[in-house]
Amino acid sequence: MSTLSRRLLPSTAALAAFESVARLRSFSVAAEELALTQGAISRQVSGLEELLGVLLFERTSRGVILTSVGADYAKSVGAALSQIRSASLQAMTKRHSDTLNLAILPTFGTRWLMPRIPSFVARHPEITLNFATRIGVFDFDRDGIDIAIHIGQPDWPGADCTFLMEEMVAPVCSQAFLDSHPVKEPRDILALPLLHMASRPGAWSHWFQSLGLSGATSQGMRFEQFSNVAQACAAGLGVALMPLFLIDSELASGQIVQAYPHQVRSPSAYYAVAPLTKTDFRPVVAFRSWLLEEVERYRGGEVMAW
Questions:
Q1: Are strands 194-197 and 168-173 parallel, antiparallel or unpaired?
Q2: What is the rounded distance in angstroms from the CA atom of residue 100 to the CA atom of residue 94?
Q3: Superfamily name with CATH number, domain 95-166+268-301
Q4: Quick check: 129 and 102 in contact, CB under 8 A?
Q5: S-S: 232 plus which of 40, 95, 218, 237, CB 3.0-4.6 Å?
C-alpha cells in the first residue's frame, strides 16, 4: 500500500476514538465510552492528526473544540462508522435476508407506529427490524433503507408508494395562551404568533383558505419536528396547526386545546414507500401487509381525527 493510500485509510480504532471525542466533546468521556484510557484516546487522535496533517481539535482549559476541518471530517466519519457497524451486525447475525431496514418519521414513529410494533415482532419473529429516522426524500440505496414511512405526495422517484392514511389538522395552543388571546373567529388567529413546521410551509395558508380568508400569515417560530411544536404550544409560545391524531395525549390531558374548532384535511398524506428493487423483498412485503392491517384496525377500532 502506498503512503498516500495509507493516509487515506486511517485505522478504525483511530477513527472510532476521533468520532467519540467529536461527539462527546471530551477525551475522558470518550475513554469511558470505548473502555480505554484517556491516554490511549489522546494517542489515537494525535496519531490521526499527524497522519492527515491537519488539526482536528483545539485543546482548551474547558475541553476540546472541533476545528472547521474537524467538524466536516466528523460528519463523514460518523456516517461511515455507522454504516460499518450496521454491516458488521448483519454479518454477525447471518440474517441479512431476514433484516428490514425501516425509515420512520420522528413523531409518527414514536406515537403511532412504535406502540404497534410488538404485534409485528410477534407475527414475524424471524425478521429483525432496524430503525432509522428520515424526513423528506432520500436515496434508499445510499442509506441502505428497504422501506420508509413518508408524509407528502406519492411522487417518490423510483419507488412504490402505498397509501396509508390522511390526517386532519386544526389550530391548537395552551389553555393559558387561549385565555389571554381569545379566539372568537378564525380571523383572530391571523394576529397571533403562529408556529410553523419547516416541512409544511404552506399549511397555515391552506387552513385559512379553507375558511375563505386571505392575508399574510405571521412569520413565527419554525420547527423541524412535531414533538417540538407540541412542546412550544404547551409552553404558551403561540398557535400551531397540528395533526390531531399525533397529539391525542396532550389533548386528553389538557396540555393543549383547540384554539378554534375547524379541522381541514392536510394536503399531505402518509405512505409506505419502498424502492422498486425491494417491492418483492419478503420482509418488505410482510411489513407492508401488516402495516395496512394496522391502519384498517386503527380506522375501525380507535377514535380517528378524520
A1: unpaired
A2: 13
A3: Periplasmic binding protein-like II (3.40.190.10)
A4: yes
A5: 237
Q: Domains of the chain: which residue ranges? A: 3-91, 95-166+268-301, 168-265
Q: Matching CATH topology for 95-166+268-301 and 168-265? A: yes
Q: Report the chain's mean pLDDT, rounded to a whole number.
A: 88
Mean pLDDT, residues 148-156 = 93
Q: Which amino acid is at 117?
A: I
Decide if 133 contacts 104 (C-beta within 8 A). Answer: yes
Q: Average pLDDT of 128-136?
A: 91
Specify the CATH superfamily of domain 168-265: Periplasmic binding protein-like II (3.40.190.10)
3-91 adopts what CATH topology? Arc Repressor Mutant, subunit A (1.10.10)
Residue for grid cell 440505496: 141
pTM of full prediction above 0.70: no
Coil, helix or strand at residue 270: strand
Q: Where are the beta strands (DSSP E) in 121-268?
A: 128-133, 147-152, 159-165, 168-173, 194-197, 222-223, 239-243, 257-258, 264-265
pLDDT at 187: 92
Q: What amino acid occupies position 111?
A: R
Q: What three-state secondary structure class fits 178?
A: helix
Percentage with pLDDT > 70 across the chain? 92
Radius of gyration of the chain, Cα coordinates, nearest whole angstrom: 24
E strands, 156-247, are 159-165, 168-173, 194-197, 222-223, 239-243
